[in-house]
Amino acid sequence: MAMTRTDRSGGFTLVELLIVISIMAIMFAIAVPRFEDIGRGGKMRAAVNELRSTIALARQWAIANREDVYLVLPDDFSAVYSGLSTNEYAKALRSYAVFTRSRGYIKDWAYLPAGIYFVDQNNSSQAARPSPCINANRNVFRQQTVYTGADRIPFPTATDAPKQINALRFTPQGWAVEVNGGTITPFDFYLVEAVALDGLAGQVVRLVWKDNPVVWRLGVNPLTGILRTYDCSQL
To answer: Is 8 part of a structural domain of the chain?
Structure first.
């Protein structure tokens, strides 16, 4: 009687399949965080590029039209949103637009990518801030750039009531200046990954840092408007 032999050339044993699946699981676990880092960095770069182009637009308009131009930066000060739709709360520390006294808003509101926020003065002065490179004295979100009284800026459209709001002003010379006296001062934007909680402690939003967040500093040269970027995440 002839003996038969099992032909295994076309398949794998159960043990072999389990080994392959285990190796794939390990490789996947290693690769996912790297892909997440790429995504995080991509969102931050997109935010920087959009902000850079908007600052260039504001400065060029100021020079070409010989008038002050404002990069309007809504923070989480609750009075800014008084009497407005709650939908406007989404602008807090996430949006910016270009405004002139003669033409109103010359560019639609732009938003930072989801999960990325500007750091305001209050958060930038906290000891628990996510990076030591965040400096409250250089932050564009500070008292010296808040427009009050007769200088207030209509928000969120040119036909709305003027609001006490933060803005970076470019003069007809192309200089970035503070509100009082037009002092030429270096400005920094600080962008960070955070979770925003609304309606807490009388504020529209309160920033809660993510674990090991991506943090970037964007320095504005007050004379040229050139934007220099620094990755502060590892400091």
So the answer is: no
